[in-house]
Every structure is written in structure tokens, then in C-alpha cells.
Amino acid sequence: MVFSSLTFLYIFLPLCLVAYFLTGKIKVRNFILLLFSLVFYAWGEPKYILLMLAATAVDYAAGLLIEKYRGTGKAKFFLFCAVFLTLSVLGVFKYADFFADSVNRVFSLQMPLLGLSLPIGISFFTFQALTYVVDVYRGRVPVQPYYYKLLLYVSMFPQLIAGPIVRYSDVCAQIDGRVCTWQKASRGILRFCVGLLKKSIVANFAGELTEKLLGGDLSELSSVGAWVGIAAYAIQIYFDFSGYSDMAIGLGRVFGFDFPENFRYPYAAHSVQDFWRRWHITLSSFFRDYVYIPLGGNRKRWALNMLIVWLLTGLWHGAAWNFVLWGLYYFIFLMLEKLYLGKILEKLPRAVQHIYTIVVVLIGWVFFYFEDLSAVKAFFAAAFGANGFSNLTQTALITNYIVVLLVGAVFSVPVFSKILALGNRLCESKIGKVLVNVSCVIFTFSALWIATAALVGSSYNPFLYFRF
């Protein structure tokens, strides 16, 4: 089940909200939210719900044992077991066949492949479970004595499938002590509708253009078609993922939770380093706090530590060599900026910094989009004129989607934040507050109506980050 589906919008979510708000007792609300979360996951992955239950049980038991033997070698042993078993789940389902196939190709072997399908959201819920057990060991969060509460944290449906990566420390106090207010819920609904529009309108239509330009025979792709196609993909993946994050954060607020922000207008960045401070913030901070710093951070072997982090970042996104190449690509540019380019960029006009960043990011999306490395080569050949500068068919296609591209480009920069700031200023007066509230209600119903119409009339509705 996905947020941008009619089943979720008009059946699952209303039933969940009614059941949730029928009671004011936090314990009952927790059980209701847990039940609906398990149903949400089982809807699309019924056989793999046991995997999530088992992984959570491992980290729950490890947390209790770490607390019991705190300060001894046994605590470290139980931490190691929990981390090893949790990552083993991710390794078996996501990476076993990738490495086996790679070994077969290199050494001409015939190792059997497992052929397991990838459980939805496995990279997200395993990382979240890890933050719990590691932070219990570090003494940063109290051990959770109740399994169902830890399971609620891991399985909570607003952020279960595609993040943001919510650490246990972010919500541990809110599990038993959150406050649900109408004001917070209304803001959450507004945030959800913004995300729904981003996904169902901008991301989906940009995705259609991407598929039509880049999903066919690349030998017929013109230079204009190649660059517009990868720009459309950049818009698609940003509005797809940030739209999901908006919906997750919005739903979290409706239920009384405050989830961390995951995007901060990354296409407005003025360097690659700045881009990664703004893109998928919760993943970057996870690798910083749980991999980079434990390896030594900036204190020792910082270049090697960065290399490890970016190899893992690439592999986290997918078990394919193009993702490894994508991670190495960003490692190179981050190293260059840290050692040389950063000082040069600071002296250049802001517009030049921004153009440089956008070009680097667009080229990076090429490695991300094409899993076949021969297709990467064919794309760059087309992009630099091997098949001609343009052709009438692709130009007409681009013209049909020009509005979506313009909307995507405009709202990729902090336009919406300026609208919110204006609304906050208007709320300082009584009349302004009434106008803002009425506008929010009109926007909410309009967004829901437009998104519904788009979903009914379109069969193209993927969530890109589900496969990660």
C-alpha cells in the first residue's frame, strides 16, 4: 500500500483516524497505531511481516541484555550479536545474490542464487532498529521494557516504507508522552497534502517524461532529449522522495509525533557538500553518527573513512554496480571540494556555484538511473551529440510536459518556505489569521481533489525509494 493510492486515502487512513481519535488514552492509541501499521505492511508484504517482527525481537532482547550487563564485556558481545544479525537480514535479502552473481562473473563460477524478493522498506526499518540497540549501548536512550512499544517504533506506518530514518531517540519520549492537538493535526494534514501533490502531480508526470525519453532506445536519443530527460528524472526523484517525506512527517504530526526533516531544498545548494547537507538528511546523519565517527571521523584516516561511508551509501541505495559507482562519484567530488575546489568555489559568484552543483548532481543521477553501465555510456554519447542535437518527436514530447518541468524547477527552490513565512506574518493579525486558515482549508480540499483526479486518470504511480 502506498500513500498516493485511493485505497489508502479513502479507506485505510479514515478508518485509522477514526479508531485512533475515538479514545484519548495513549496506551490504547499505541495499540491501534501498531495494529494499523502491521496491516499496512502486511497489505503488500504479508510473508515478510514475520521478518520485521523477528528483527525487532532480536534488537529488543539485545537491548535488555545490554542493560542487564552494562559495563561488562557481555554488553559489547550482545551489541555485536544484534548488529550482526540485523545487518545479516539486510545482507541476505538485498546483497547476497548481487555478490554471488559478481563472483560468478569474475571467476566463471556457478554459485546458486537465492532468488529472494526484496522486502519493502527493509533498508529503512533495519537501520531504525539498529539506532535503538546502538544508542542503548551508548547510554543515550533508556532501554524499552515492552516489546510492543519498540515494534510500534519500528513498524509505524507513516515512516515505515521510505523514511525518513527516525531514530529511537527522536521518538522514545513521544511513545508514552505525546500530545495530540487539533492545531498540530491540521498542520500535519496540510503538510500531507503538500506531499501528496508533489508526488501525484509533479513526480508522476516528470516520471512519465523520464520514461519516454530515457526508457527506450538510447541510440535514438538526441542531445536535448538526454539532458531534459535526466533533468526530468532529477525532478521526479526529488518530488517523489521529498513528497513521501512530507506525507510521513505530516501524518506523524496528526498522530502526535515529531519526525525529523529529511530535505531542505537540495537543488538550491551551492556545492556538492551543501547538497548532501540538504538531501536525505536522516541518511547522511545516520552514516555520520553510526559509521564515520566510530571509524575515527576527522581524527584519523578521514579520507578512508569517507570512502567507506560513500561506498556504503551507494550500496544502501541498491545492490548493483551503478550505485557503487554513484557513491564513488560523490566521494571524489566531496574530496575535491574538501582539498581544492571548496576554496575556489568560495571566490566565485553564487550563481556559478549553483550551476556547478546542478551540473554535478545531474551527471550523478545518470549513474543512479541506469543500472546497466553500457546504458550509461550510451546516454553520455547521446548527451554530447552522437545522435544529433534534437529531433522533432522529442521536442514535441518535451513541449507537452514543459509546465511540469517549470513547476518542478520553481518549487525545487525555497518558494514554498517564503509562502509559509508570509502566512506566519499574516497570522499576527486577526483578519490575517482568518484568511490564512480559510486558505489552508481551501488548499487542503483542492489538493485532495486534484490528487484524486490525477490518480484515477493515471496508471503511473511508483514510489522510487520503495526498492531501497
In percent, how much strand structure appears in the residues?
under 5%
Percent of residues in helices: over 70%
Distance between the termini: 16 Å
What is the global morphology? globular
Summarize the biggest pleated sheet: none
Record the SSE blueprint.
Layout: H1 6-21, H2 26-44, H3 49-68, H4 73-107, H5 122-138, H6 147-155, H7 157-160, H8 168-177, H9 182-214, H10 223-254, H11 272-278, H12 281-295, H13 302-317, H14 321-347, H15 350-369, H16 373-383, H17 392-400, H18 402-410, H19 415-426, H20 430-457
Helix pairs in contact: 1-2, 2-6, 3-4, 3-5, 3-6, 4-5, 9-10, 9-18, 9-20, 10-15, 10-16, 12-13, 13-14, 14-15, 19-20
Report on this model:
The protein has 468 residues and is an all-alpha fold. It is 75% helix and 0% strand. It has helices spanning 6-21, 26-44, 49-68, 73-107, 122-138, 147-155, 157-160, 168-177, 182-214, 223-254, 272-278, 281-295, 302-317, 321-347, 350-369, 373-383, 392-400, 402-410, 415-426, 430-457.
In short:
Helix content is 75%, strand content 0%. With 468 residues, it is mainly alpha-helical.
Features:
468 residues, mainly alpha
